[in-house]
Write a structure and sequence with these properties.
about 725 residues, alpha+beta, ten-stranded antiparallel β-sheet, binds alpha-D-galactopyranose
Length: about 725
Amino acid sequence: MKKIFLIVSIALTALIFPNFSMGELLNLSTPKTSLVLDASVGEPLKILYYGDKIKEADVDNLKVSPLLNHQAYPAYGIYPQNEAALSLTHADGNRTTVLEVTGVEKEVKDGAEITTVKMKDKFYPVEVKVNYRVRPGYDVIETWVDIVNNKENNITLNRFMSGYLPIRYGDVWLSSLYGNWGNETRLTQEPLTHGVKMIKNKDGVRNAQTSHPEVMFSLDGQPRENEGRVIGAALCYPGNYKLFIDTDASNHHHFFAGINEENSEYHLKAGETFTTPELALTYSEEGLSGASRNFHKWGRDNRLHAGDKERKILLNSWEGVYLKVNEDVMAGMMEDIAKMGGELFVMDDGWFGDKYKRNVDNSSLGDWIVDTNKLPNGIGGLLKEAKKNGISFGIWIEPEMANTISELYEKHPEYIVKADNRDIATGRGGTQIVLDMSNPAVQDIVFEVVDTLLTSYPEIDYIKWDANAPIMEHGSQYLSKDNQSHLFIDYHKGLTKTLERIRAAHPEVTIQACASGGGRASWGLLPWFDEFWTSDNTDALQRIYMQWGTSYFYPAIAMASHISASPNHQTSRRIPIKFRADVAMSGRLGLEMQPKDMNESDRAVCEQAIADYKKIRPIVQFGDLYRLQSPYDKKGVASLMYVTPDKDDAVFFWWKTETFVNQQVPRIPMAGLNPDKIYRITELNRIDRTPLPFEGKEYSGKFLISNGLEIPLTHNAPAGQNSDFASRVLRVTEVK
Ligand code: GLA
């Protein structure tokens, strides 16, 4: 009995090393955070601390009294009761891995410092390199792992997480995103209790439609936006993922994040290396918004394609005409958006198909040839029209997909994802199928389709790259029988390789990641994409909730947000144009409607919004986000603001989320301003007949931060423009 107890207690504490050895301490520090590791040779790598930046003296104390003291990359096998980041089966069937540090290497690459802790198995010729990247000026540390099979015949990777982090038990709350089509990025906040909380994706293609591979941990109880200690984690991967937190009987929550290994065991031949995706970690003492700002700044400058380039105001044709694309209608839309002050027109689905025309959504994907019935003068004709109107032109394409009704599929049935001896599983229209991106021939085709389009028409400024299906059966006609389990991973290896080639040839074009709406809002793709379509749901009220969730991890510059028609096509809700514009302006502004259907006064409000957005675009797209009042708190109002890094200019957004007579809503104190500066308030997108009482007035930053402004709950608008919706956009500019 005693023996069993001993074994169980050893097992439970196996991740912990009370006999701490004094070895090489690595203190990886960013401007405001520190990650301290013990990389003593001959021992497993240990993590001692992650949090607020600490002084050398405190680092020294960690040697004798570490706050964490867990293996930094626990491997499976010895005390198999514990969750592990790595699990592999050696060629001889041994399922245990025992790692010890052999050395540490540091290199500076593209201005970032990369620390690599090299470990090897004590017996088998397997090497594991745990990498940490610190970029000067950013409070984010990226970690990833290389698993190297030096000599063994064949090893099987059963689990291969990007990273592991122990988080001290306490009143820790998890913030994560969950949703569905038309309702993406809903925020969920919950306390972490004993057991396992798992967030995972197995879609195969789109990995952001339901859950998201990003989380935040509030360490001081119920999450707060602008106070409290927060750890944030974002897995930068476009494919299937698994994040889980195992809260056991120890003093720690064990957080793991990486590729989802389910049905994806990976075989590594002698000499091969498997590199995991990166896990970005951040820490902030300025609440959830602080962690978001860290991700936004890091992502805009280092991960988002062209993150320093202002995005154009566009009109997308989808909700305006759906598949009924034709030359006259496109020309009319271009003329309208140009007149309204827009800068780009994007022709959505419906423009292609030769043998099979894309008139309904059940054919022609893969046949990227202009339908000359609809567009007699082709893309060239449309580009001329765009030029005439002084705007840029963009086009929709769904390159990873085909339909069973397509010339591509007729010629190359072997190119699609399909299991042997099974019927074809199809998606949209009953005919949509997925091309097998693990196949190099398919990668070439996808590259050529995009490359030919952009080389033939170099004036194309923008591509909306869609992906509207999951992998619907586990089978690759390209991969060997033994490597069928590689499909989900090799699909994304193939996709990113192709995107790499496309970007090398076409660095300038703007590319939007769309996938049945927000299915590809992913840091795993943004190195090649400039933005994502946030959701197919453009209802402004619901967008407040979705965009709020999105903003936890993604900057406004990447979040496409369009003004659409009323009644809304997804919810049938009637929302006045002012409110629709005020919500869309808090992201990358665009329009998603037929401008011809707008009445004069709506059009005027829209034009005003476009003009005003041009003024605040740098603040929204490059500023620091402060979320002030969450719509999820159900206080009747939601509010956030963007502030320039110099704190000399800001935009304050305020939206009423429900309306009752004599309702009480809180006044919203501002944040992020300099308390010592003086700011002038100007209303943007004004529809009221009389200015707000504080219009043009000057206030100290201190006053605005402590009190905020008393905002009227209704508009005093011309007849017909009052409704149950109210919103305000205020510019808060330093008086110099
Ligand atoms: C997806 C996208 C939409 C639109 C359609 C076109 O649903 O999310 O925005 O492009 O495809 O078929």
